[in-house]
Structures are given as C-alpha cells and as structure tokens.
Amino acid sequence: DAGVTQSPTHLIKTRGQQVTLRCSPKSGHDTVSWYQQALGQGPQFIFQYYEEEERQRGNFPDRFSGHQFPNYSSELNVNALLLGDSALYLCASSLKGAGGGQPQHFGDGTRLSIL
Amino acid sequence: AQSVSQHNHHVILSEAASLELGCNYSYGGTVNLFWYVQYPGQHLQLLLKYFSGDPLVKGIKGFEAEFIKSKFSFNLRKPSVQWSDTAEYFCAVNLPGYSSASKIIFGSGTRLSIRP
After folding, report:
1. Residues of chain B with pLDDT under 50
2. I need a surface site. Which of A7, A24, B54, B96 has the fewest CB within 10 A?
3. B30–chain A Cβ distance below 8 A for any pair
C-alpha cells in the first residue's frame, strides 16, 4: 500500500523563479493538504484540496497556488520565489469524512532551497 | 486565532528515564488533539489522537497523553524512554465540525535526544 509520495525530493531555485511541487496521496485518500515547515518550526498549513477545489487556506500570499487532479494527486506552485520560501514542503492526505479530525498521512516532503 | 505551544524546545534524557512533553493550546471550544513524531530521516507519523471520551489516550510505542480541558493541555508521557525514541515531537490541534482533515495547527516541536 503506497503511502504519500512527493516529488522532487530536493530542489534548488533562485529568487524570482517559479516552482511546482507534486504529491500523490495515499491509496484511497481523496483530500490533500500542503504545509510549509521552516527549519526549527512546526508545519504551517498552506491550503487543502478536495474535489479539485481549494477548500481552506492558511495565511499564505497568492504567490502560493495549487491544483488537484481527477486522480486526487496535487501540485503546489510558488511564483516569484523569495529567500524566505526556503523550507520543507509537506503534503498530507486523508479521506473525507464527517466530523473532521481524520488523521492525515504525511509524505517525506520536498526540500526547497532558494539562492 | 488558535495556537499550540510547546515550551520545551530540546529535551535530553538518559535511557529508562521518564518523559513528559508539555503542550498547551488556545481555543475555548471542542478540539481534536494529536501528537505526531518525526524520526530522523522519516516522515511525520501519528503517535496518538484524542477526539472525545477517556481523556487518557494510549498511542503507539508505549506513549500516552492526557487531555486536561481546564488547563488546555495535552501532555505526552512515556514511563521509560529508549534510544530509539530520539525524534522531533509535534503537538497539533484541529477543530471538529469542519470537513475531514481540516487544517491542523502544529506547535513548534520538541526535539528529544536520548543518551544511550
């Protein structure tokens, strides 16, 4: 049973560039959330996708955008990269259900470094 | 806004010592509470969760946590730690009533180092 997979593992970009990160959810899951984890910090919620729509969003600028495909996989796009965007980007998946609180399964993350 | 505080940034213990990691959250209503663990080089894994019922929750690998509503706390405990418990531990909350997997608010984490 494949867990959450993310690609690429590592990425180096320069300021002003654009980047796309990819995530395949755990088999059977339909909801994908993205988090940014800066060094020494806990993950910060970016946004969540379900049924190919953004359902919730954290306190991140519009430079951060995403997409969910019919097969539930997802992309995170970041435009006009800043040095402060350097972080580990985590994807988490779960199955939509009533009541909330469904545990999320996390991928290994993409380490993004901005030079 | 909801927040999660983990006051211990780095804890160093010897094997067989008892562990308690503190976690406090700020939200007046009903919450779901989690502890996640990140072992070196691995992804975040769910250690245990509290939704309702018995406030003493048992998780994997001998960990447990106690929800004390009056103190807005959800401290993680283990009676006797092992070297393999060396990891980063994150306390997290989300609010029930939203759709599944609504955003999780994480604390800043506590790094646990176990001396062999």
Report:
1. 99-101
2. B54
3. no
